[in-house]
Design goal:
Elements (H helix, E strand, L loop, with lengths): L1 H10 L13 E4 L4 E4 L5 E7 L3 E8 L10 E7 L6 H16 L5 E10 L2 E12 L2 E12 L2 E10 L4 H14 L1 E2 L2 H8 L3 H10 L7 E13 L4 E12 L5 E7 L4 E8 L2 E2 L2 E4 L2 E10 L4 E10 L11 E4 L2 E4 L25 E8 L3 E4 L2 E8 L2 E7 L10 E4 L2 E2 L9 E5 L7 H22 L7 E6 L5 E3 L2 E5 H6 L12 H12 L7 E3 L4 H20 L2 H22 L15 H4 L1 H13 L1 H14 L3 E3 L1 H8 L1 H11 L1
Parallel strand pairs: 11-21, 27-28, 28-30, 31-32
Antiparallel strand pairs: 1-2, 2-10, 3-4, 4-5, 5-9, 6-7, 7-8, 8-9, 11-12, 12-18, 13-17, 14-15, 14-18, 16-17, 19-20, 20-25, 21-24, 22-25, 23-24, 26-27, 29-30
Helix pairs in contact: 1-2, 6-8, 6-9, 8-9, 9-10, 9-12, 10-12, 12-13, 12-15, 13-14, 14-15
Length: 626
């Protein structure tokens, strides 16, 4: 059915819902596709539906009814593409009807295009009384389908038009070019992460709420999870099963419906939960997943959590999922932002630091029971830290700060004061730049994380960065700028990456470059504008130097933790500065505030940013992105 719907979509293009793209090529990082335009005066009109991306390209100011245009269609199936069947469906089910009495198949060839198996068909007929030939290529890339269509209105010189279309076919890349080069060079741990998460199916089920209990025991050590998840069928048809996925290393013990275990079948790393009856569209089901984590010979899942007898932390990936966290290009994929209730059962001498607000805390039988809830700010991940924390002296002021240190942190009172002042200054700057959030307290906790990690109202500092606040800077007598910049950057993730999270191609630019830019911009407020200008020049110089040494890449093709993450901190920041200069300071601040306000507790795409800046400035920004 998807093939038939796709056929109708391509043959009769609907008005596109995004701005016209006047660029040498169209790039879609999700599918790893790059398509050059046939002639310099042609433009792209990309549009995205629920399952399909359609890109129409045609001469500027030429209406589609003239039949002088081409189309690129990208979609993903749930199984490897059956190319022969899809092409036959299109020829017999769509083109025969659309091209009318003059319909005829002039050629059908099997060949290779962009390194992928393809079928080319050449058809003839008339559409809306315009005699036209249609040339279409169908390419299979595992479960991805790429359709490339060209139209030749009779009466126009065919040779020159054919030469332009030939340039498109020869220049088409599927999973190639800069994107493929970047993917090949991704560090092994992140590449494994992406490969692991790609097995998670896109399903109709969205998580509506999580209520999780985490029990930690130092013996082993071992963490046990009991997670009650409410799911909603967000699809268009009824379904009788739910796919649930846990990160490798998390061992599934049982899935419960009330007190009873439910039937499930294992398919690789997916547990398909059998429902007692079909769930209609919009219907809600509730189930409880029981699983545990205990370090084995292979250690712990990468980039998910750390665990030892002295403490534990979780950054992402520990909740059961029905949707993948990343798309096929390594970009963060959107899902419903579900409210969280996090309950913890830890040794009595331990404390818990999490996102949201502390609801309850009690001690009995040598254990500590703690509950945290996320309310006004729906975070995109569920981060927390457990350990023998000691609360530093309470810090009030405009922004209350809760500082939690472990016994291995030997910060003096002066160092702790310096750290808290940096947090308060960063929070005040971000609140004024991006809008106030209903978060009443900021929590800072040290942990054995490899680098500082910021979340909604929570920052986990590595012990080294925390210790820097005890080292006076030789020039100003304050803490080193490296430490203060790290705090500003990670505080900014409360807005960029948590309250507002990015999705789709270019998401790494939003989630990484905007916090990095915040550290630079704050210098202009905390010190002087000349300091910001100096840092901008340094960033732009670093980008140019890196481009000469290692080459440049479009920002929209970069993946988080990829091999060229340096560009997110240089070219990505330079792109934001270019927008600020083009808009002017006042208008730029309005744009930032509108983006964070309109997309709070939701997802932000590059297209949203382009639309907010206006067409003229969007043209400037596109040169950095694409």
């Amino acid at each position: 059915m998807l093939g038939l719907a796709l056929a109708a979509l391509v043959a009769c293009p609907a008005p596109q819902d995004t701005a016209t793209l006047d660029a040498p090529a169209y790039v879609n990082a999700v599918h790893g596709v790059s398509l050059p335009r046939p002639f310099d005066d042609w433009v792209f009109e990309p549009g995205a539906g629920r399952r399909t991306t359609t890109v129409i390209f045609h001469p500027r100011d030429t209406p589609l009814r003239s039949q002088l245009w081409g189309a690129l269609v990208l979609t993903t199936f749930s199984a490897p593409v059956a190319l022969d069947r899809i092409v036959e469906q299109r020829v017999q089910g769509t083109w025969r009807r659309l091209l009318g009495r003059g319909f005829d198949v002039l050629a059908r060839d099997s060949l290779t295009v962009a390194g992928r198996p393809a079928i080319r068909v050449l058809l003839t007929g008339a559409i809306n009384r315009v005699s036209v030939d249609v040339e279409e290529y169908a390419l299979a890339s595992d479960s991805d389908l790429v359709l490339l269509q060209f139209r030749y209105p009779r009466g126009l010189p065919r040779d020159s038009l054919e030469a332009g279309y030939k340039r498109v076919v020869q220049g088409l890349t599927v999973g190639g070019g800069a994107l493929l080069a970047a993917a090949r060079a991704v560090p092994a741990s992140f590449a494994d992460s992406l490969a692991t998460e790609r097995v998670v199916p896109r399903s109709a089920w969205q998580a509506a709420a999580y209520d999780a209990l985490v029990r930690f025991d130092t013996a082993g050590p071992r963490a046990d999870f009991t997670v009650r998840v409410a799911l909603v069928n967000d699809g268009e048809t009824a379904t009788d099963s739910v796919p649930l996925w846990l990160w490798p290393g998390l061992t599934l013990d049982s899935i419960l419906d009330g007190p009873s275990a439910v039937q499930r079948r294992e398919s690789g790393s997916i547990a398909w939960v059998m429902l007692p009856a079909n769930a209609a569209p919009g219907e809600r089901v509730v189930m409880t997943c029981v699983y545990h984590l205990q370090p084995g010979p292979g250690g712990l899942p990468p980039a998910v959590m750390g665990m030892s007898t002295g403490g534990a932390y979780a950054l992402r990936g520990w909740l059961p999922r029905t949707q993948p966290a990343f798309d096929s290009a390594g970009q963060f994929a959107p899902a419903v932002r579900a409210p969280l209730t996090l309950r913890f059962d830890v040794p009595e001498r331990w404390r818990v630091v999490a996102q949201g607000r502390l609801v309850s805390e009690a001690r009995f039988d040598g254990r500590r029971r703690v509950t945290w809830q996320t309310d006004e700010v729906a975070t995109s991940v569920a981060a927390f830290a457990l350990g023998p924390y000691q609360a530093a002296t309470g810090f009030g002021g405009e922004v209350p700060v809760a500082l939690w240190l472990t016994p291995q942190d030997s910060l003096t009172d002066e160092a702790a004061d310096a750290l808290v002042r940096a947090v308060q200054a960063a929070w005040i700057f971000c609140s004024r730049a991006f809008g106030r959030l209903p978060i009443r307290e900021v929590s800072i906790a040290t942990a054995a994380v490899p680098a500082p990690q910021g979340f909604a109202g929570l920052v986990l500092l590595d012990h080294r960065t925390a210790a820097l606040f005890g080292l006076p800077h030789s020039a100003s007598g304050g803490p080193p700028q490296e430490a203060e910049d790290a705090v500003i950057r990670e505080i900014a993730r409360t807005w960029w990456g948590s309250s507002v999270a990015a999705a789709g191609p270019g998401s790494a630019w939003i989630d990484e470059s905007f916090p990095a830019w915040s550290a630079l911009a704050a210098r202009g407020v905390l010190e002087a504008d000349t300091a910001r200008e100096r840092l901008v020049r340094e960033v732009e110089a670093a980008w140019r130097a890196a481009s000469v040494k290692s080459g440049d890449l479009p920002l929209a093709t970069l993946s988080p933790n990829g091999p060229r993450s340096d560009l997110l901190n240089t070219k990505g920041v330079a792109a934001i500065e270019a927008v600020r200069r083009a808009l002017g300071e006042a208008r730029f601040r309005e744009v930032l505030l509108s983006l964070t306000r309109e997309h709070r507790n939701g997802w932000l795409t590059v297209e949203d940013v382009l639309a907010a800046t206006g067409s003229d400035v969007a043209t400037v920004l596109r040169t950095f992105l694409y």
